[in-house]
Q: What sequence folds into this?
């Protein structure tokens, strides 16, 4: 019995119509979902019985590949998809600029660009967990203007079911940085072009960041007091799941967390190196 060795092998077998009959936004997202064991290969009605029979016994995630390798393949697939879209139209929809060669978006105040071949250019180092949401946003975001209504990750479509680890992986890890590194919120404002806003939900500090032009996030932090532990929550605009798929929103949260940890490490808080 044949086995799938990588995500792109499955992607190549799909018809790439992005018809959404599998309830994923794209064929590439479906291929990733099969590898993450969230979907069964039979959920694409366009695959022939021969192909399904060929792969039905296969393990979802390749046992030979690491999470990073599967992630890098997914990123490569997104770059290939870029070659097939109208970058000028995508720039208009996504709130970016197109100069005839590259589409550029502001990611937390810094320029981040992609050309027609899917090559990425950035003023700052952006880790793959942020590069993936950037490309998904350009490719498939609806371009909906944010409403200003903040909701938790769990309240976004499929947030609670598909990514129950958001709290642990993002909010608790960010809280550890905030608890340890006292200048975090000042840095978010000065380095990442964040905006401190009037306290929301009775938090001690509320900062709004723009990791993508139409996907703002708000980080609220409650300091520890009188025997109570601190709390940190991340809020999304309630349109976020229309501008970015839920997997990319999770990836964005994980990417930002990793960036904040790195920042704290650079400022001499080595204890955060092993916090995840
Ligand atoms: S149903 Fe199949 S062809 Fe349609 S988007 Fe999903 S994977 Fe692609």
A:
């Amino acid at each position: 019995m044949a086995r799938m060795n990588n995500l792109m092998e499955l992607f190549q077998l799909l018809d790439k119509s992005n018809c959404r009959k599998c309830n994923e936004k794209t064929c590439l997202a479906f291929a990733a979902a099969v590898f993450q064991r969230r979907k069964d290969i039979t959920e694409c009605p366009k695959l022939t019985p021969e192909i399904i029979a060929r792969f039905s016994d296969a393990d979802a995630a390749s046992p030979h590949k690491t999470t990073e390798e599967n992630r890098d393949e997914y990123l490569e697939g997104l770059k290939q998809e870029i070659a097939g879209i109208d970058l000028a139209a995508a720039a208009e929809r996504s709130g970016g600029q197109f100069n005839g060669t590259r589409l550029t978006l502001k990611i937390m105040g810094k320029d981040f660009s992609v050309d027609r071949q899917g090559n990425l250019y950035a003023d700052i180092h952006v880790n793959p967990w942020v590069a993936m949401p950037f490309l998904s946003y350009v490719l498939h975001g609806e371009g909906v203007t944010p409403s200003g209504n903040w909701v938790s990750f769990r309240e976004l479509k499929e947030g609670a079911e598909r990514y129950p680890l958001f709290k642990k992986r993002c909010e608790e890890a960010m809280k550890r940085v905030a608890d340890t590194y006292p200048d975090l919120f000042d840095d978010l404002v000065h380095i990442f072009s964040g905006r401190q806003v009037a306290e929301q939900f009775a938090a001690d500090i509320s900062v709004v960041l723009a990791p993508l032009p139409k996907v703002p996030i708000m980080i609220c932090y409650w300091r520890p007091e009188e025997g109570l532990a601190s709390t940190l929550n991340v809020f999304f605009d309630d349109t976020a799941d229309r501008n970015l798929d839920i997997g990319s929103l999770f990836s964005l949260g994980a990417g930002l967390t990793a960036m904040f940890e790195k920042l704290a490490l650079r400022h001499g808080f080595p204890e955060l190196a092993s916090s995840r």
Observations:
- The beta strands are 97-98, 102-107, 110-115, 120-122, 150-152, 195-196, 205-212, 215-222, 231-237.
- The chain has three domains: 7-65, 82-140, 150-274.
- Residues 14-15, 17-22, 24, 27, 30, 44-46 surround iron/sulfur cluster (CB under 6 Å).
- The mean pLDDT is 85.
